[in-house]
Fold these 2 entries.
Entry 1:
Amino acid sequence: MSTLDALKAHVREIAALEEVARVLSWDQEAMMPAKGAELRAEQAAAVEAAIHRLSTDARIPDWIAGAPAEAAPPDRVTLREAARTHARATKVPAELAAAIARATTLGQGVWARARAAGDFAAFAPTLARIVALKRDEASCLAAPDTTLYDALLDDHEPGMSAAGVEAIFAPLRAGLVDLRGRIAGSPRPPLRVTGRFPAEAQMALARRLATVAGYDWDGGRLDLVTHPFCSGVQGDVRITTRISADDPFNCLYSTLHETGHAIYEQGIDPALALTPAGRWASMGVHESQSRMIENQIGRSRAFCTWFHPALVETFGDIGLDGPDALYGAINAVAPGYIRTEADEVHYNLHIMMRFDLERALIAGDLAVGDLEAAWNDRFAADFGVGVPSPAQGVLQDVHWSVGLFGYFHTYTLGNIFAAELFAAMGRDLPGLEEAVARGDLGPAISWLRDRIHRHGRLMAPAALIGAAIGHPPTEVALLDYLNHKYGALYGV
Ligand code: ZN
């Protein structure tokens, strides 16, 4: 066996174990009984330790050195990623990696109970432990000239730095605050959905939406969780949603969002399965696929032409007399507490707040004990209203409880990429709106499959998006999209 073949077999085993970890994590959220948490933490730590052992194998550098200089593109990615993950894994001691896996697995349960009780103090010691472990991890990883936070950020958006994020966030923030101010001065009352929305009917329509958005049911399933997510690769890509009794859009748009993630995974070239090139390009690119299906398409006036009759067929009277009323209702702009329920104008302001707070936590400039007060102060300053309870404030997101720091900004990058891709798609597909109005997302999905999905990680994130849109991505397309859409809706 050549050294390259040996490396590929080894990397394949690591990839398979990473999928085991993902199935365990999906099970924990969707299926596992509450008493299983302690055992699951041990299982997760054991899988993590096995991955760490394989990733730090001393033969990896020799295999890389022995590989031919001219390798095929997927093998080039294997060599690059193997070098990167080996360097990363050897810098982080096995005991620290296992401690993080155990703390974050248990952290999730502690967070969920604290959130249900509305008690930040019940979560604070656990979060302080996780922050300390993540700071230790970042100290192992950070290059001499980079910050601890940049070291964590690189995991989710390779090639991006906190300074790079700030350079995009500053002009975006100014544009969003301006648009929000104009909307707040508009006299148009937001329309609201009313009616009866039985859980089974919501799930039936959610399944229909996923089908319309191109989800392959032979390679997936839909389940209920607290915090919807998509998990898996290739032939096993699972989506989740949640039910709100008086707001069907919570379930339906969560489903559309996760389906956008899922069709990305399902659309990666099968020939790349279980290789480093067969994974998503970055979390920002991943989020662009979910946002595109949820917002640019799912909340468009064209989609309402198909969606309104489907809603009436499912629920009867929904208090909205046609596609125009539906379009107004699903795009109502109002400052709310919850990020995942935020409208497109406010959403990125939620992200910018988290980006600043978690950067201060990792830098050591903000103590976990002061986090709740810092959150509430910042929210009042940015949104003009006080936070009524921790569940609607600092405890609302799962991310920090599972050790995800340096991740939140990828949501906004996703919005930026989605707006850029949608503008390019509109130029390439003159009949796009008519197709969407018929509930035919085929042309849009084919376009995404060709430009984004099938390539997996063969290209770096910025290069992948740049090749699809013909120029480097900026915040301008997102501001243009929002100004055009909400300017017309609110007459501002
Ligand atoms: Zn998402």
Entry 2:
Amino acid sequence: MLANVQEVMFSPKGDERGKLIAIESLSEQVPFEVKRVYYIFDTTPGTIRGNHAHKKLKQVLICVSGACTIVCEKPDGSKTEYRLDWPNRGLLIEGLVWHQMKDFSKDAVLIVLASEHYDEGDYIRDYVKYRRFCRELNCVTKE
Ligand code: TYD
């Protein structure tokens, strides 16, 4: 499996006090050991972030406040937009997926759970190189 994108849902535990979502490594929604967490907030209006793919990294993105849109392109060229606008909705991105994050609301806080420590060597930041890399690997995507 070289590239996969999948929406995942978390079940809030709710009572009269409000809601709580608990996330664990190696669960249905997060099928990897979480080694790193980062979050994106206070995003300047109109900003487009990301614009890269990873060779191996697996990530789950959750917009715990506000909303943003994730555009994912798979090695076969198919492109899908996902609007993350609720804390119980996440997006699992595994491997060679070219992705952009855009249309952040003012209050957006996008948390990302990642399977590896930060490694610039795992990034492909040049789109032409990404397409070439996919062709060379003759990628097959999992739907
Ligand atoms: P960058 O890769 O440009 O963010 P994005 O592509 O998601 O918009 O990262 C911004 C800076 O933060 C860059 O200098 C690398 C650094 N960084 C870390 O040090 N650790 C991390 O886990 C991440 C995601 C980024």
